[in-house]
Amino acid sequence: MMNDLKNIQVDSSTQIYGVFGDPIRQSKSPIIQNRAFQVMGINAVYGAFHVKPEGLKDAMNGIRALGFGGINVTAPHKVRVMEYLDDIDEAVRYIGAVNTVVHKDGMLIGHNTDGIGYVRSLKEDLKYDLQGKTIVVVGAGGAARGVVYAMAKEQPKHIIVMNRTEEKAKALADKLSPLCSIEGIGLAGIEHIKQQNVDVVVNTTSVGMAPRSDEMAIDPSWFHEGLIVSDLIYNPRMTKLLEVAEKRGAKIHGGLGMFVYQGAYAFEYWTGKSAPVNDMRSVVEAVL
Ligand code: NAP
């Protein structure tokens, strides 16, 4: 769907931003970022660029050559993009993936706003604080790395990362063990989890995403009243996991807030201004 850009005057001073990915036509980032520029009266425009892996180096050089203000990076470029940056922040050093690049004074600086966007969504949408909590994270892929890092910084009591490929869960836990108490297990470790006093369960896997939206990555039969169940997936907005969790009395939290806040942080890195989060959310809600 086309964004409503009628109030944006593109002229020779317009600053260009965008997202690089392959595929890219599904991206909702242009919708939220252009709305943010429009609401804030910033002379900037954000496009979606279909950059294939073999074109990533040229595309990154293009940021410098064409004077883009910055970009978002999505699959499959979040790791390889680091080869073309001048610097990365502390979060990226832990996470090993970049989703936001700032172009400033000729330098390309990599950040990752996925995890901090997720935690901000929990805090602002659910009014929930992770300090002292026991958290189960299902999945250990790219999104999990950012989310677990940001959660680890919130002083939780313990984090259990549970993944189909157990070694990936253990590797992620090892990497973040300087930050908090954390362990990695395989999906067979469900009995171990049931014995813990779990406060929060987060699905970071792609299981349950449309079109296979009747699937769940974890057995929900032990979910109970008072548990927080969160899903990074936002298509569909109500995943099967969230549906079952709600029926069992848990408090649920979907992935749209994370998407909005990761974009809000990127906007704030680029412009130095507070992002108009409510406008960004309502414009994407209207197209989902
Ligand atoms: P990824 O790097 O490919 O990781 C996928 C994860 O899902 C891995 O842990 C993988 O386990 C697991 N998995 C995949 N199929 C599985 C199956 N059949 N059974 C059990 N586990 C399975 O993907 P990602 O980038 O982390 O993205 C994961 C999800 O997060 C996607 O649904 C994406 O839409 C969502 N996401 C949302 C936002 C947001 O803003 N809300 C942002 C980023 C991502 P193995 O390691 O064993 O393969």
Question: What is the CA-CA span between the terminal residues?
Answer: 10 Å
Helix content: 25-40%
Q: What is the N-to-C succession of helices and strands?
A: EHEHEEHEEHEHEHEHEEHEHH
User: What's the average pLDDT?
Assistant: 95
Q: How would you sum up the global shape?
A: globular
| Poorly predicted runs | none
What does this structure look like?
This protein is of the alpha/beta class and 288 residues long. Helix content is 35%, strand content 20%. It has ten helices and twelve strands. It has helices at 29-40, 56-66, 90-95, 114-125, 142-152, 166-176, 190-194, 240-247, 256-271, 277-285; strands spanning 15-21, 44-50, 70-73, 87-88, 100-104, 107-111, 134-138, 158-163, 182-186, 200-203, 228-231, 251-253. It has a six-stranded mixed β-sheet, with helices on both faces. Strands 9-8-7-10-11-12 form a six-stranded parallel β-sheet, sandwiched between helices. The longest helix has 16 residues, at 256-271. The chain is globular. Bound molecules: NADP nicotinamide-adenine-dinucleotide phosphate (NAP). Residues 114, 139-144, 163-165, 168, 204-207, 209, 217, 232-234, 255, 258-259, 262 line the site of NADP nicotinamide-adenine-dinucleotide phosphate (NAP).
